[in-house]
Write a structure and sequence with these properties.
It is a single chain. By secondary structure, this protein is of the alpha/beta class. The chain has two domains: about 10-120 and about 330-345, Rossmann fold; about 135-325, Rossmann fold (3-Layer(aba) Sandwich), CATH 3.40.50.2000. Helices cover about 45% and strands about 10% of the residues. It has helices spanning about 10-15, 20-25, 25-45, 55-65, 90-95, 105-110, 135-140, 155-170, 190-195, 210-215, 225-235, 245-255, 275-280, 295-305, 310-325, 335-345, and strands spanning about 50, 70-75, 95-100, 115-120, 150, 180, 205, 220, 235-240, 285-290. The strands form two sheets. It has a six-stranded parallel beta sheet with strand order 7-6-5-8-9-10, with helices on both faces. A four-stranded parallel beta sheet has the order 1-2-3-4, sandwiched between helices.
């Protein structure tokens, strides 16, 4: 968006933090950034606001925008269907149109009186990478005769430090594979290199997650958007995650899914957290979280997916179905639909040229 001309008043990656205790520690900086953004909105008075995910900030922004009589499009719904459902009234009061990327979200909102539309998931609309396996191996120093395992620990440094150490330990249990680690643009590559230096295990750092998922035989993915990336690419994977014990206990107590999301607890009393499992309405990929997230357990879950087994074939078929569910039934692109809604709220005729409106925040 910045490359397309967006003037970033505040950098989202500087104020985005996961977990309750993590957010509390960074609250002063987040609040200062928020006030700076509000001042910019009051000065510039945009015609339409497009708010994307990030509920802890965007719901407050929506309140300020409502005071200024600025229409609000909310693209990528916050997970109100999982917890903090009392915030639903904020959507009803402050949001002109909720545009959601998961099919069950449209039913959730419409049943509760919100003007909502499922527009499809942008990741499901992307074409697969086109590089060949041999070219990819040559570019990143990989052995094309070996099986590759992609490791996706998360896009925040806190997630990397919480997840990556256990991930790289998988090599001790599956030593015949090679391991690929895409480094997110939000993570400093040198810090990752220094972190891995203490592990005494070989990992190939690569720049792009989608290419890594496309070429890897299997992957280990921290719960988050990357699980959707793996699903739409069709790469069999295992979901992992670890947060502080306090954050986990609070989340387990708070998270409850509505009737629109059929979800059952596992043997440890945990509800599913991976989006692919919530979309499918059943557990199509294994989830190993907190104490269950160990290198040995992950390796055990990966073994049947590395070979040409019925388990692997079944997961690939399930992931293909999830991808179909994430595409808009009418074939319209998600971003195009958001742009059309912006034009409609501005009172302009929808253009035929594909021009993207610039009057958004």
């Amino acid at each position: 968006m910045e490359e397309a001309g967006l003037d970033r008043v505040v950098r989202a990656e500087d104020v985005a933090h996961m977990g309750i205790t993590e957010v509390v520690r960074h609250a002063p900086h987040v609040y200062s950034s928020y006030r700076r953004l509000i001042a910019s909105i009051r000065k510039r008075r945009p015609d339409v606001a497009v708010l994307i995910d990030f509920p802890d900030v965007n719901f407050r922004l929506a309140r300020e925008l409502k005071k200024l009589d600025i229409p609000v499009i909310y693209f990528v719904s916050p997970q109100l269907w999982a917890w903090k459902r009392k915030r639903l009234r904020w959507v009803q009061e402050r949001v002109s149109r909720m545009m959601v990327i998961f099919p069950f979200e449209e039913r959730f909102y419409r049943e509760r009186g919100v003007d909502a539309a499922f527009v499809g998931h942008p990741l499901a609309e992307l074409p697969l990478p086109t590089s060949s396996r041999d070219d990819y191996a040559a570019e990143h120093g990989l052995d094309p005769t070996k099986q590759w395992v992609a490791l996706l620990p998360g896009s925040r440094w806190k997630e990397v430090t919480a997840n990556l150490g256990e991930m790289v330990g998988i090599q001790r249990h599956l030593p015949d594979c090679e391991y690929i680690l895409p480094v997110a643009s939000t993570i400093n590559r040198e810090r990752v290199t220094a972190f891995l230096a203490g592990q005494s295990l070989a990992v190939h750092l690569v720049p792009d997650a989608r290419e890594a998922l496309h070429h890897a035989r299997v992957s280990v993915v921290a719960s988050g958007t990357a699980t959707v990336q793996a699903a739409v690419i069709g790469n069999p994977f295992v979901v992992v995650y670890r947060v502080s014990p306090l954050t986990f206990r609070l989340a387990k107590w708070l998270v409850r899914y509505p009737a629109e999301i059929p979800a059952q607890e596992d043997a440890y009393g945990n509800l599913p957290i991976a989006m692919v499992n919530l979309i499918a309405g059943r557990r199509v990929v294994p989830e190993l979280i907190q104490q269950q997230f160990t290198a040995a357990e992950v390796a055990n879950a990966l073994r049947p997916l590395l070979a040409d087994t019925p388990e692997r074939a079944q997961m690939i078929a399930c992931l293909a179905e999830v991808r179909r569910m994430l595409l808009h039934p009418g074939g319209a692109g998600s971003i195009r639909q958001v742009c059309d809604t912006v034009e409609a709220l501005m009172g302009h005729e929808i253009p035929q040229s594909g021009r993207i409106p610039t009057a958004s925040v």
